[in-house]
Amino acid sequence: IYIKKLLYNALKNITNLFEKILNIKSIEKISINQCDLKSCENNGRCTSNIKLINQQYEYFYYKSYQRLIPKYQWNIKCLCLNHYYGQHCQFKQNYQSPCSSNPCSSLERCIDESSTLYTCQCIDEPCNYNEILLENTLDCMNINSPTCR
Q1: CA pair distance 51, 64, nearest whole angstrom
Q2: Residue 112 forms beta bridges with which residues?
Q3: Is the Cα dihedral 102, 106, 112, 114 positive or negative?
Q4: Between 36 and 111, the higher pLDDT residue
Q5: pLDDT value at position 61?
Q6: Distance of CA 84 to the CA centre of its chain
Q7: What is the rounded average pLDDT for all residues in the chain?
Q8: Is residue 40 a contact partner of residue 90, using CB atoms and an 8 Å limit?
Q9: What is this structure's pTM?
Q10: pLDDT grade, residue 36 (50/70/90)?
Q11: Paired sense of beta strands 45-62 and 65-79, if any
């Protein structure tokens, strides 16, 4: 994040200087977060980063002012929630979760491992008053309900 902000500030300063020297407002503005464009659908999480294109620069010359400006590219990626996919999380998989039949007890939560496998995990961690911690694990077992393991 530090390098990203440093690069942003350097490019912003160069842009401001060019605008002042040339008395124009047509230089591309670089914003820190390209995700402001709301590019992800279905509650997908957008991530963005700026990538310098190796050893490529644009030469700028105006009167006696010269500058090499690094070329860059924005990379935007959507991290989709379960069962959604696509560049913008716009597609939904036709998929039925193995947890949809509620195979776990009321003291457990069902976690999809794949389209056919699931794991039942204790809800209360760390252990509550009526639970014990199983040796060599971080799992709790309810004394009154030994199904939670």
Answers
A1: 30
A2: 118
A3: negative
A4: 111
A5: 76
A6: 14
A7: 72
A8: no
A9: 0.38
A10: low
A11: antiparallel
